[in-house]
Amino acid sequence: MRKKAIIITACVLALLAAILIPTFLISRPVVGKIAVIPLTGAITTGGASSFSGSTITPDLVSNYLAKAESDMAVKAIVFRIESPGGEIVPCQEILWEIERVKETKIIVVSMGGMAASGGYYISTKADKIVALPTTMTGSIGVISQVTNIEGLLDKLGIQIEIFKGGKYKDMYSGFREMTPEEKEIVQQMIDEYYESFVDVVAEGRGLSREEVRNLATGQIYTGTEAKKLGLVDELGDLNTAIDLAAGLAGIEAPIVDYYQPPALTLWSLLGFVNAIQARISGLSAQDIVLLEILNHNYRQPLFLYQS
Q1: Percentage of the chain lying above the pLDDT 90 cut
Q2: Closest by Cα among 46, 52, 51, 124 to 87
Q3: Alpha carbon of 22 to those of 9, 17, 18: distances in Å?
Q4: Is the whole-model pTM more than 0.85?
Q5: Which of 28, 76, 138, 158 would be 245's cystine partner, CB 3.0–4.6 Å?
Q6: H or E segment and range at residue 17
Q7: pLDDT at position 50, please?
Q8: 164, 169, 183, 228: which is the annotated catalytic residue?
Q9: Is-contact 291 278, C-beta < 8 A?
Q10: What percent of the chain has a predicted confidence (pLDDT) above 70?
């Protein structure tokens, strides 16, 4: 009887082993998260235009990345960029933050309809860049402009009295024409930022400085052109970028976590209200654009595509 019980037990154990051992031997798919982070709007330090909508700021990007870093399951990050660029300093800060996180997580950029100038700048150090065939990108260059309203003030009979301490303190005021010496000062600054932009693209894309210089004319390129020129790696949509990120991170069964943009701030809502009030008051679209120009005279150099 005892011998029979031993035989039965051995058979049961053999059967369990036959069932369980292959299960453990079968390789399971590697699971991990891919964080999809939306970056939409002009790149700025934080202040919004009176008539603008969403913006991209270093704080916004830092908060997104902090969330991704705190989640150990996140193995890769896909930035969905829709931006014409903007201010130079926040562009640099955002790029540095992306470079820092790239040391521990795969970074892939998915370009939307536009990722130009500063929008391209912050993409350059990603592990891979994916663009739509019709994406407007490139616009590698720097712009600064001062609206001279001296003639307009004369017509309106308005005279501006300026008191200054420092020879060049009012050179950006727009109330007078800049002197040749002042124009040279501004151009030297523009040239310095331009060379910095060229260096970033050359390093990020593995191109020579001479190759980048030939492309850095401020020209817009389609995604198709950009791929031929080496400015992007692949043509495709957001799903293409997600698949590419999964492959680079070695994830076979990715869980995609779409990060949501922050709720509209009171300042953003006021911007929309201002625009609505302007239209109700009878101002045309051209009038609103003129107000925007006068309100935001782009004195500082910008990595910005202006359409």
Answers
A1: 60
A2: 46
A3: 20, 8, 7
A4: no
A5: 76
A6: helix 2-25
A7: 44
A8: 169
A9: yes
A10: 76
Task: Catalytic residue, from 52, 54, 110, 117: name it.
Answer: 117
**Of the candidates 140, 120, 122, the residue with the CA atom closest to the CA atom of residue 131:** 120
Alpha helices for 180-237 (secondary structure H): 180-205, 209-215, 223-229
Overall average pLDDT of the 112-118 stretch: 97
* Tokens, residue 40: 């939409």
Active site residue 49: no
User: What distance in Å separates the CA atoms of residue 292 and residue 280, rounded to the nearest whole number?
Assistant: 17
Amino acid at 37: I
Kindly tell me the sign of the dihedral angle through the C-alpha atoms of 302, 293, 219, 99: positive
Where do the domains of the chain lie, and which CATH numbers do they carry? 29-304 (3.90.226.10)
| Backbone angles phi and psi of 25, in degrees to 5 | -75, -25
3-state secondary structure of 306: coil
Cα separation, 66 vs 252, in Å, equals 25
